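[Discussion] Sanity-checking designs against the backbone

I'm trying to build intuition for which residues belong where. Below is a structure token string of 215 positions. I'd appreciate it if someone posts a full sequence so I can compare it with mine line by line.
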């Protein structure tokens, strides 16, 4: 991935590494790519609780970008200048290579999505609800007695779209308060497109939670 593959309007997640002017040092910020010129990426100034988050010249930042059907990419950048037109933006120079980012496969978003769970080994199907989800698996609450190591087909409702994956039950715990079984499922067969749909959903929900100040 190089500069020509970036698109104006791309949503960016920024992790501060050093040398910020602000006394607030959040682990992550949300910005947007607004221009590409002279081998620099120009990004909009991030906001924290409605206030601009400013960087000093030569600040180092990590930028993470989601690309549909390709996944998550990250790179280190250096702030080289600040430009004020209609909006304040920073010029960022890439340092090093753009790398495929794997960490979101393992970030678990707490959520409640409808999921149809079907055993591949016996005649057992149930409508369940997720308790959390990641690109690598999900935790589900259900009434039926699925077994540990059992293979299951997952039909997960993600914002009205059904995402399919085959998983293996890696743990099962009885919740005596709800009388549900809480089962952990590891995805063992899932297309890159479907995994990236889950990751994109997690990315979107993280932005909303961060905007509300909940994370």
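Best answer:
Here's mine. Compare freely.
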């Amino acid at each position: 991935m190089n500069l020509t593959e970036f698109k104006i309007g791309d949503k960016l997640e920024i992790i501060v590494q050093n040398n910020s002017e602000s006394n607030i040092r959040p682990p992550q910020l949300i910005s947007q790519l607004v221009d590409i010129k002279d081998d620099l990426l120009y990004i909009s100034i991030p906001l924290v609780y409605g206030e601009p988050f400013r960087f000093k010249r030569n600040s180092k930042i990590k930028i993470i970008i989601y690309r549909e059907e390709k996944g998550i990419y990250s790179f280190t950048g250096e702030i080289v200048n600040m430009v004020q037109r209609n909006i304040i933006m920073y010029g960022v120079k890439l340092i090093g290579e753009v790398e495929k980012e794997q960490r979101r496969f393992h970030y678990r978003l707490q959520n409640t999505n409808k999921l149809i769970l079907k055993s591949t080994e016996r005649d057992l199907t149930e409508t369940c609800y997720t308790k959390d989800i990641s690109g690598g698996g999900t935790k589900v609450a259900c009434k039926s007695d699925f077994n540990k190591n059992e293979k299951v087909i997952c039909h997960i409702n993600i914002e009205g779209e059904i995402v399919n994956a085959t998983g293996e039950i890696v743990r099962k715990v009885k919740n005596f308060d709800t009388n549900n079984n809480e089962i952990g499922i590891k995805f063992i067969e899932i297309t890159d497109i479907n995994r990236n749909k889950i990751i994109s959903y997690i990315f979107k929900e993280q932005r909303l939670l961060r905007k509300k100040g909940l994370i």
